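COURSE: Structural Biology Practicum
ASSIGNMENT: Worksheet 4, Part C
STUDENT ID: 0417
INSTRUCTIONS: Below are two proteins. For each, the amino acid sequence is given first, followed by its structure token string. Answer the questions at the end about the second protein only.

PROTEIN I
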Amino acid sequence: QLVQSGGGLVQAGGSLRLSCVASGRTFERYTMGWFRRAPGKDREFVTSIRWSDMSTDYADSVKGRFTISRDNARNTVYLQMNSLKPTDTAVYYCSALEDNTWRYWGQGTQVTVSS
């Protein structure tokens, strides 16, 4: 129900944009988020955006570099990633929050940042 696109290989300092399109249902009234899992590490929260007021939260590690946005008309959430670092290398997942649980997940997208 959440289909991701974007990602790939980029040099340090570069930019990428990830997209997450909802299908089969609307996520207009859901808080949406992005998570990532680096090799050998647990999945970690990256950012989220609320449907009610578009307020956002960011992990300290990405503040000032990543931006989450959403287009409810297109049922799409974006993650703009700038000034990428090798430590940002991970599989990125979009997710939708329901009943205080990150219940719905995208398929994952590989982001690799070379030094």
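PROTEIN II
(use this one for the questions)
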Amino acid sequence: QVQVVESGGGLVQPGGSLRLSCAVSGRNFISSLMGWFRQAPGQERDLIADIDWSGRSTYYRGYVQGRFIISRDNAKNMVYLQLNSLEPEDTAVYYCNTLPVQPNYWGQGTQVTVSS
């Protein structure tokens, strides 16, 4: 059974940084394209970044490009998202999943709140 657990969120001031982690178990992780998503209150859950199995190919949504960095450690079955220069608009619950998305892989997410 696949389990996805996100962690690392918290309350941070504008301009601050956080590093999110996603632990994946029970799946052949190394071959998976992995993505980070976020969902703000009252909004859709959107893909904001993804990374291929090798870690060499990445994609970023325009509004996080240059501020967020996605990475992975296949030996540890981990995916990371470094959040820099955070803005109040980045407040959301952050999730990871494979791509294509597997609905039964959604974890609880990790809350990121950006506020002074």
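ANSWER KEY EXCERPT:
Q1: The mean pLDDT is 95.
Q2: The radius of gyration is 13 Å.
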